[in-house]
Write a structure and sequence with these properties.
heterodimer, A: MetI-like fold, 76% helix, globular, B: 302 residues, mainly alpha, MetI-like fold, two-stranded antiparallel ribbon
């Protein structure tokens, strides 16, 4: 009896929490004729016409450009964050270096509203010509990703027995060699988690995409809102839904494939941070 | 002999320290360029008279900008919006998340794949979710008004001056309840079985078990979740901006949106930056206060 109740609550929670995604997915398979008489959550004549429309390049919408920008900026933002955080995490975990100041400073960065850095960064980018570039957006996404990458990697390295380092050092390995050949293979799974989580976070970022790009480097989240704004009052909801589904698909698929890793890293990130 | 050994050790130690420093320095350098420099610019410009014409040659002007911000009723309205929004959404997310984590844990402990659909909202960009709700709540194309008309013969306006705040709270809470749920589920699973068995031997009812054993053990996690969700709600931008912008008459203007608009739409750079600094000081004060509290609790325990 209570078990049935638990199942009912679970199904209801899944449906309500995912209502926007479900409604958008359903609408994306409806023709505009059907949508005008049936805005409900079932489809009587499913069609792919919206997706075919989205994949066509028009002057109002070039989805390939948005997707490419998001992909490149997110790749920079997640890979560079790992490249910077991994050596630092090794030094923090093993050398006890910067435990007092650096670690808390970076960790607390997550609680700081990043918009306060946005205006000086905008001016700085204007001076050095990084405004509206994929690289410029990627560098900012690196900042967004650094705190969690550092927390995940420090915790992973702390779990590696220090005897491994000591044995390698007795064999005459340098610090760099120990980091790359002893530690890196052992924490590969944590590196992977930090990379994927960083990629998803970067893909879903909106504020800096909105401020730092106008034309050439517009990411998917901002592109989708441009598409809405350009439509004025006469939004074609089927087409708009297909745009949103295509834009939300990469992080959702990654996230669903890796949900176990991600739930783990969200929890460590919050508790250990 | 001994002295030689000693200097040998310190030399190796020195070398080691230099190596550690070398490993940390790329990240530190990056942070200095991308956060340190902007912070300095923030402080200087907040005390200067700047506009888009003399961007590189700001004139020091004392606390003028701060005065302008602090006497701007829109700023206080935005601060009040952010505070209310942060408190209400954090409370709602943590209460629902706690209930789901405890009530559903027997199901999920056996089939962890059930976690995946509950986590899906966390994977979708908040900005995208804001856009999706434009569809969901649309008078003509949205399923929610459609079903409300069908069942009740009427559907409220979700995004007018009176209702927009609450609609946004629901939108935010529905997206982030899974985050609280995840933390609480992990904490609930981590409660040692002995604690439960001991309580059972003492004849505790399941309600007593929950309130006297389980919830106190989960308290640190609950505090962390409330804090994280409050901060995120307090600085909200994406979903509010894509769903309603500043809202009818600016009723849904959060502090982040206030800063964005002051800079990009009104071009009042000094004001925007002064507001940024105030936001920074506020979040710093909250953080410092919390770590002070945490340190005091740790002291009290030892």
């Amino acid at each position: 009896m209570i078990k049935a109740l638990r199942w009912i609550v679970l199904v209801l929670a899944v449906l309500i929490l995912n209502l926007p995604v479900i409604a958008t997915l359903v609408t994306s398979f409806k023709s505009s004729a059907e949508l005008s008489v049936n805005p409900g959550l079932w489809i009587s004549a499913p069609t792919l016409e919206n997706y075919l429309g989205v994949l066509q390049v028009t002057d109002r919408l070039n989805i390939y450009g948005y997707l490419a920008n998001s992909f490149i900026a997110s790749a920079i933002g997640s890979v560079l964050a790992i490249l910077l955080a991994f050596p630092a995490a090794y030094a923090l975990a093993r050398g006890g270096f910067g435990q007092k100041l650096l670690m808390p400073a970076v960790v607390n960065l997550r609680a700081v509203p990043l918009i306060i850095f946005a205006i000086p960064l905008y001016m700085m980018y204007q001076w050095v010509g990084l405004l509206d570039t994929q690289l410029g957006l990627g560098l900012i996404l690196t900042i967004v990703n650094l705190p969690l990458a550092l927390i995940i990697l420090v915790n992973a390295i702390l779990e590696v027995p220090i005897e491994l380092d000591e044995a390698a050092r007795i064999d005459g390995a340098s610090t760099w060699a120990i980091m790359m050949r002893v530690i890196r293979p052992v924490v590969r799974s944590a590196l992977m988690t930090a990379l994927i989580f960083g990629f998803i976070t970067a893909w879903n970022e909106f504020l800096f995409g909105l401020m730092m790009t106008t034309n050439h480097a517009v990411p998917m989240t901002v592109g989708a809102s441009f598409f809405f704004a350009a439509s004025g009052g006469g939004i074609q909801w089927g087409l708009a839904s297909a745009v949103m589904i295509v834009g939300a698909l990469p992080p959702s698929v990654l996230g669903m494939l890796m949900y176990r890793r991600i739930s783990g890293s969200l929890t460590t990130g919050a508790i250990k941070g | 002999m001994r002295a030689a050994e000693k200097t040998g050790v310190t030399r190796a130690e020195k070398l080691r320290r230099r190596e550690w420093r070398g490993l940390v320095s790329p990240m530190v350098l990056f942070l200095l360029v991308f956060l340190g420099f902007p912070t300095v610019v923030d402080v200087v410009y907040s005390l200067s008279r700047v506009d888009f014409q003399n961007l590189r040659a700001p004139q020091l002007a004392g606390f003028e900008n701060y005065g302008a911000v602090l006497s701007d009723p829109t700023f206080w309205a935005a601060a009040w919006f952010s505070l209310r929004f942060g408190v209400i959404t954090a409370a709602a997310e943590c209460l629902i998340g706690l209930f789901l984590a405890i009530f559903l844990s027997p199901l999920i402990a056996k089939r962890s794949a059930l976690m995946a659909p509950l986590m899906l909202p966390l994977m979708v960009a908040p900005a995208m979710v804001g856009l999706m709700y434009r569809l969901v709540l649309n008078e003509f194309a949205g399923p929610v008004p459609y079903y409300l008309y069908m069942i009740f013969g009427n559907s409220p306006a979700f995004l007018d001056a009176d209702t927009a705040f609450w609609t946004l709270c629901v939108v935010e809470a529905l997206q982030w309840t899974p985050f609280a749920f995840l933390l609480f589920y992990a904490a609930y699973q981590a409660i040692p079985e002995e604690a439960r068995q001991a309580a059972q031997l003492d004849g505790a009812s399941s309600w007593q078990m929950l309130t006297l054993i389980e919830l106190p053990l989960m308290a640190p996690t609950i505090a962390v979740a409330v804090f994280i969700r409050f901060i995120d709600g307090f600085r909200v931008f994406d979903n509010v901006y894509t769903l309603v912008g500043a809202g009818p008459g600016g009723v849904t203007q959060s502090l982040s949106i206030y800063i964005y608009k002051a800079f990009f739409e009104q071009g009042t750079i000094g004001k925007a930056i002064a507001a940024s600094i105030l936001l920074f000081l506020t979040s710093f004060a909250v953080l410092a206060g919390l770590s002070w509290l945490a340190a005091r609790r740790r002291e009290a325990r030892t």
